[in-house]
C-alpha cells in the first residue's frame, strides 16, 4: 500500500547491460528522471509533468526512432519513440511522462509514480534491454540523475532537463522519523524525532502551524504527549533541501470527551485560536454532556457515557491540521464566506481503528458547497457544521506548495474500485439532518439517503459514488460525524471507466456548472446536445435513428 507522506529520496538505482545481440543496441542512456515536477520545468503546454531525459553516449548521431520506453517491464512496448527522433553527438532529449500523447512534443503514454517506480528502455525489437532505472520515493522539485553524465553514479540534482548534470548535486535532508506512530493512546508517551542527516536541525510545532527553518520549537529531546496533540516536524540544514512536514496526531479519548470543558466546574470554555461566537450564537466546542456525560461519566445522565469511547473508534477518524488563523482568522476559510473556494495548505490524516490502516498527506483544502443567495449549504450561519473538500495536488490555486503529491493513492472505500483520488468530499450533511434550520427538515432526519440511493444504483450495475462515515477533527477538536464520499467528476470517471481524466466532460447541476471540458470539446454544448437527443427519444420512443443519435 502506498503511504501518502513524503520521504527523503534514498535510492539505489541499478543500470543493467543488455545481453549481446546480433546488432549492437544504440548507445543511449537514461540520464535524468523527474517524477515530482511541481514548479521547475513546464512542458510546451505549460504543464508541470514528469519527465525523462535520454543522452546520446556514442561518438556520432543516434536515431531513437522505434525504441521503447515503459514503466512496466511486463509491457516492454508501452510507448514507442516516434521515427525521426535523432540525437546529435552528446545530445539530450526530454520525454514528458504525462499520458498526453496527442500534445505537441514527445509525450509518453504513462506517468511516473513519485512514491517509487521503474523505468525501462528497450531496443526496436521490444526485447533487448538498453537501460533501466529503479526509483524510490521522489522529493518534490528534485530530480535524480547521473553525475557525471551516463555514469553509474546517481545523485539527487537540481534539475537540468536537456543539459548536462555535471555539478548539479543537491543534498537532501533525510526525512524525519517518529518513535510513536499516529493513533489512539490511553497513556502518555514520550515521542522522539530523528533524521539520519548529521548536523540537521529539527523544528516542531504543537499548535497546528507549519514548522519552517525559522519557525517552531528546536527539537532537543523527547516530547511528552499526554493529551490529544498534532505533532508537526521538519528537518533543515543550510545549503540542503529540507524535508517535507510530517504530522502525527495522538488521540486520547478521555481528552476528546472532555474537550472545551473546565474540568473543575464543567463549564464550557473556548479553545485558544477559536472564535468566541458564530454569527449571533456563542461558540460551543464542548462535547454534549447529555451524550457523553460530564467528563466522560454518567454523573449527569450522559446517554452514551459508557460506550462513547468505543463509539469514537467505530468508524475511521480524519484529522485536518493547519494554522488556526487559516480556519478562523479574518480570512479563515471556515468562518469567512468570502473565502469559500479559497484553498489553504492542510495536513490530512486518516486512521481506521478497525483495520489499523492510515495515511497522512499534505494537500489543499477548501469549503464545499454553494453560497449563492445565502440559501445553500455554505450560507453563514445556516448551520455551523460545514462541508469541506481536500484536494490532493502539489500546489494551491494561488501557487502555494502543499508539500504533497498530485494524487492520493489509498483505497478509502472497500466496496469501490477507485484507488487513486484527486479529491474526496467531507460532507457535513445539511438536508434532512438535525442541523437544518427548518423543522420540516429536522423532523425527516435520515443521514443515509444519498448513499442509500447510490448503493442501490451500484447494485443495479450503475455507476455512483461510494461513501462511508468518519469522525472529523479540526486541529484536535472533535468536529462531528461526517459523510465521506467520492466526488463523481472527470477524474473519478477516468478511474472507473478508463481513459484519461481530461477526455471527460464533467458538469455539476446544469449546463452552466462546468467542472471540466474534455479534449477539444465544449462541455456545455455537448451537454445540451445530449439533452436534445434524449428529448428526441422521449418524443418518439420507437425511432431507432433518434436512439442511435443519443448513443453517439
| Lateral strand order in the biggest sheet | 27-26-25-24-31-32-30
Unreliable stretches, pLDDT < 50, 5 or more residues?
A: 1-22
The profile of the biggest β sheet is: 7 strands, mixed
Oligomer: single chain
Count of helix runs: 9
- The end-to-end distance, rounded to whole angstroms, is 39 Å
Overall description:
The protein is α+β, with helices and mostly antiparallel strands. The protein has four domains: 28-157, Lamin Tail domain (Immunoglobulin-like, Sandwich), CATH 2.60.40.1260; 177-251, Immunoglobulin-like (Sandwich); 318-494, no CATH class; 505-551, no CATH class. The chain contains nine helices and 34 strands. The strands form ten sheets. It has a seven-stranded mixed β-sheet with strand order 27-26-25-24-31-32-30, with no helix packed on it. It has a six-stranded mixed β-sheet with strand order 8-7-2-1-11-12, with no helix packed on it. A five-stranded mixed β-sheet has the order 14-21-20-17-18. Helix 8 (523-539) packs antiparallel against helix 9.
Structure keywords:
4 domains, 552 residues, 7-stranded mixed β-sheet, globular, 6-stranded mixed β-sheet, Immunoglobulin-like, alpha+beta
Chain-wise SSE layout:
Layout: E1 28-34, E2 50-56, E3 62-63, E4 68-70, E5 79-80, E6 86-87, E7 92-97, E8 107-108, E9 117-122, E10 129-135, E11 143-146, E12 154-157, E13 177-178, E14 183-184, E15 189-191, E16 193-194, E17 201-205, E18 217-218, E19 223-225, E20 229-236, E21 246-251, H1 253-257, E22 277-278, E23 281-282, H2 289-292, H3 308-311, E24 317-321, H4 324-328, E25 344-351, E26 358-367, E27 388-391, E28 408-409, E29 420-421, E30 425-427, H5 439-442, H6 449-459, E31 467-474, E32 477-485, H7 490-497, E33 506-507, E34 514-516, H8 523-539, H9 544-551
Helix pairs in contact: 8-9
Amino acid at each position: 500500500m502506498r503511504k501518502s507522506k513524503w520521504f527523503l529520496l534514498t535510492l539505489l538505482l541499478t543500470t543493467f547491460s543488455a545481453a549481446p545481440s546480433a546488432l549492437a543496441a544504440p548507445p543511449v542512456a537514461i540520464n535524468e528522471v523527474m517524477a515530482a515536477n511541481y514548479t521547475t520545468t513546464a512542458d510546451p503546454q505549460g504543464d508541470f509533468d514528469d519527465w525523462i531525459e535520454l543522452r546520446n553516449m556514442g561518438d556520432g548521431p543516434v536515431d531513437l526512432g522505434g525504441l521503447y520506453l515503459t514503466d512496466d517491464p511486463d509491457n516492454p512496448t508501452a510507448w514507442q519513440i516516434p521515427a525521426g527522433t535523432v540525437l546529435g553527438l552528446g545530445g539530450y532529449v526530454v520525454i514528458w511522462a504525462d499520458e498526453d500523447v496527442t500534445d505537441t512534443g514527445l509525450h509518453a503514454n504513462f506517468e511516473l509514480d513519485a512514491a517509487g517506480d521503474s523505468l525501462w528502455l528497450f531496443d526496436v525489437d521490444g526485447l533487448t534491454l538498453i537501460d533501466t532505472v529503479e526509483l524510490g520515493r521522489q522529493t518534490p522539485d528534485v530530480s535524480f540523475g547521473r553525475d557525471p553524465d551516463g555514469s553509474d553514479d546517481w545523485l539527487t540534482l537540481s534539475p537540468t532537463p536537456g543539459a548536462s548534470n555535471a555539478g548539479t548535486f543537491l543534498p537532501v535532508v533525510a526525512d524525519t522519523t517518529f518513535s510513536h506512530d499516529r493513533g489512539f493512546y490511553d497513556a502518555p508517551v514520550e515521542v522522539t524525532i530523528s533524521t539520519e542527516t548529521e548536523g540537521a536541525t529539527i523544528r516542531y510545532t504543537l499548535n497546528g502551524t507549519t514548522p519552517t527553518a525559522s519557525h517552531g520549537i528546536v527539537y532537543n529531546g523527547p516530547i511528552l504527549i499526554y493529551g490529544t496533540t498534532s505533532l508537526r516536524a521538519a528537518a533543515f540544514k543550510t545549503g540542503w533541501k529540507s524535508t517535507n512536514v510530517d504530522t502525527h496526531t495522538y488521540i486520547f479519548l478521555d481528552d476528546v470527551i472532555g474537550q472545551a470543558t473546565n474540568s473543575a466546574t464543567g463549564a464550557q470554555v473556548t479553545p485558544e485560536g477559536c472564535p468566541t461566537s458564530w454569527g449571533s450564537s456563542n461558540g460551543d466546542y464542548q462535547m454534549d454532556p447529555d451524550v457523553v456525560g460530564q467528563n466522560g461519566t454518567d454523573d449527569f445522565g450522559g446517554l452514551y457515557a459508557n460506550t462513547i469511547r468505543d463509539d469514537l473508534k467505530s468508524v475511521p477518524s480524519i484529522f485536518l491540521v493547519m494554522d488556526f488563523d487559516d480556519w478562523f482568522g479574518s480570512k479563515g476559510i471556515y468562518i469567512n464566506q468570502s473565502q469559500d473556494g479559497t484553498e489553504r495548505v492542510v495536513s490530512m490524516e486518516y486512521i481506521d481503528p478497525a483495520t489499523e490502516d492510515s495515511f497522512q498527506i499534505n494537500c489543499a483544502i477548501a469549503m464545499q458547497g454553494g453560497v449563492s443567495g445565502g440559501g445553500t449549504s455554505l450560507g453563514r450561519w445556516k448551520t455551523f457544521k460545514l462541508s469541506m473538500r481536500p484536494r490532493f495536488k502539489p500546489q494551491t490555486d494561488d501557487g502555494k506548495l502543499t508539500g504533497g503529491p498530485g494524487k492520493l493513492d489509498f483505497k478509502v472505500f472497500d466496496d469501490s474500485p477507485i484507488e487513486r483520488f484527486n479529491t474526496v468530499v467531507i460532507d457535513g450533511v445539511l438536508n434532512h439532518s438535525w442541523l437544518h434550520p427548518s423543522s420540516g427538515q429536522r423532523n425527516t432526519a435520515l443521514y443515509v439517503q444519498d448513499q442509500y440511493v447510490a448503493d442501490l444504483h451500484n447494485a443495479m450495475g450503475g455507476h455512483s459514488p461510494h461513501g462511508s462515515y468518519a469522525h472529523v477533527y479540526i486541529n484536535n477538536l472533535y468536529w462531528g460525524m461526517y459523510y465521506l464520499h467520492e466526488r463523481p467528476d472527470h477524474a473519478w470517471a477516468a478511474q472507473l471507466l478508463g481513459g484519461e481524466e481530461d477526455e471527460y466532460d464533467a458538469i455539476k447541476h446544469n449546463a452552466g456548472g462546468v467542472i471540466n471540458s474534455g479534449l477539444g470539446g465544449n462541455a456545455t454544448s455537448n451537454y445540451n446536445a445530449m439533452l436534445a437527443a434524449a428529448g428526441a427519444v422521449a418524443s418518439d420512443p420507437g425511432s431507432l435513428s433518434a436512439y442511435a443519435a443519443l448513443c453517439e
